[in-house]
Amino acid sequence: MSDPRRASLRSTRRGGPSSAAMFAANLLLALAWMAMTGRFDILNLLLGLALGYGVLLVSQAAVGTSAYVSKSLRLVRFAAFYALEVLRANLRVARDVVTPRSLARPGIVAIPLEAHSDAEIFLLTSLISMTPGSLSLDVSADRRVIYVHAMFLDDAEALRREVKEELERRVLELTR
Length: 176
Fold this sequence. Notes:
This protein has helices spanning 19-37, 42-58, 60-63, 67-98, 118-130, 156-175; strands at 107-112, 134-139, 145-150.
């Protein structure tokens, strides 16, 4: 019978620690950093997580590779991408609000999905709806198409391409 305390340290197929074990190690390193500096605030936690991540990145040669490192990098890149998209959308909506003539050309577009699981579809539709000027309206019964309302629909095909090649592709990279 296996030791339950060792369950979190099980290795992945690549021979290294599991992502859960690497995250736990990163969190412990961050908490140790906070204890050593004596500052218990969010900025120091984030700094500790970054430093802990660096330690884990360097120590991969000794402990083996883990999906945690690549997934973490993808998550950071996605967060930066999405923050930039939200900023662009906010500026576009704000410009429309402050200008005397409305620039909005609303429309609804059907976008075919590559996402299949409930989690992937939920994440994609939530991110679309949280972006100013767009709203996920519905997912088809066969779960192959999503209907999106766009406040500024200049080109339906360009919107489809943007959602498919940018947002959906990145969501699938994170979830798969």
